[in-house]
């Protein structure tokens, strides 16, 4: 299909962009954690919020690993549905996380971004992995 | 013969599908992603709804020829005074000094609105009396017409005191409007069309400067004299009267108001559509790619009509 020349690279690029931003937030999460807390906070509260954000980011990275595994192994690389879904979700995720990082949004918003932009493509990816590896269907 | 493109027009390709297909879902998602994010972008970048704006107008100000003047003549509380209110003058007794008053309102640019007030008061004094401080209250009628119609009675209060006795007080300033809240964009605003000084009451409390100013400052719209420094000229000749020279200008005012519904909607629409254009262009390209390359299966209507046998 002629769409391969554009669809696969765009999926790859949006995946990597989302991944890069998640890793950037991982390394500079101080400002975001401080934005979740009230003006007066104790060290315990800070550590609690920090742990929560670390957990969220780690789960995101795990889901990324699942999706990249499916993509690079070729199982979902040429699947049109997954390509479209993954491109759309990761593109909006990358833009939303860009705002999250620069505008210092609160931590609760991260869970929403995570839910819509990381969980949905990873779930479909897992479904595809199951159908190909488990039910022995053809990848495309 | 040079060949060049003389005209071109786009040919439309229609893609058809059933209601319950991935293509419908895709188009619905794209519709949401096209029309909702511009609203979010325009709103989150502040200033979407215009809450306050300004306009310029020269007000129609007229001096109401009601004045109140009090001058302190000693450190033990002696004073002389005069006003245009007969009840107040009656209460003064021997402290009343009736000045010679000269008032002139000028319209320098001939636009029908007065631009300047020149006021001269010559207060006669006894030979041994000296003036140490002056309190002067002038009343005006103030009208605005461009947006909401404002009709009110306002005042300018001037006070100056010095430790040396003077012969002349020279005041030169602008009559400025002070707003606590923005004005509405239309309607009649005549709540303050009552006299600043309560005439008709024989009691002394209605001429108490503190209570007059307290009631006046409680208003949402007031005028004040913006005067950098009055000039206190000393050295009064023995039989000369005390002169008060006041020049009050009525300048062009910048008035803040709350915009009406249509003005707010106009500016919000401009902001929304300018961001929407970018999103429309982007998602048009994405949709063209998806449907042209059959990423999601649809039935394109053929360009050329096929003849059925």
Automatic annotation (TrEMBL), chain A:
Record localization: Membrane
Biological processes per GO annotation: non-motile cilium assembly; protein localization to ciliary transition zone
Transmembrane segment boundaries: 12-29, 53-72, 84-103, 109-135
InterPro entries assigned: TMEM107 (IPR029248)
Entry GO CC: membrane; MKS complex
Record flagged with keyword Transmembrane: yes
Membrane topology: Multi-pass membrane protein
Alphabetized UniProt keyword annotations: Cilium biogenesis/degradation, Membrane, Transmembrane, Transmembrane helix
Disulfide bond recorded as keyword: no
Protein name, entry field: Transmembrane protein 107
Annotated source species: Astyanax mexicanus
Lineage: Eukaryota, Metazoa, Chordata, Craniata, Vertebrata
From TrEMBL, chain B:
Location within or outside the cell: Cell projection, Cilium membrane
Family label: Belongs to the TMEM231 family.
Keyword Lipid biosynthesis recorded: no
Keyword Transmembrane helix: yes
One cellular component (GO) term of this entry: ciliary membrane
Function (record text): Transmembrane component of the tectonic-like complex, a complex localized at the transition zone of primary cilia and acting as a barrier that prevents diffusion of transmembrane proteins between the cilia and plasma membranes. Required for ciliogenesis and sonic hedgehog/SHH signaling.
InterPro entries referenced in this protein's UniProt entry, alphabetically: TMEM231 (IPR019306)
Membrane-crossing segments per the record: 23-43, 267-286
Entry keyword set: Cell membrane, Cell projection, Cilium, Cilium biogenesis/degradation, Glycoprotein, Membrane, Transmembrane, Transmembrane helix
Protein name: Transmembrane protein 231
Pfam families per UniProt: TM231
Membrane topology label: Multi-pass membrane protein
GO terms classed as biological process: cilium assembly; regulation of protein localization
Main location: membrane
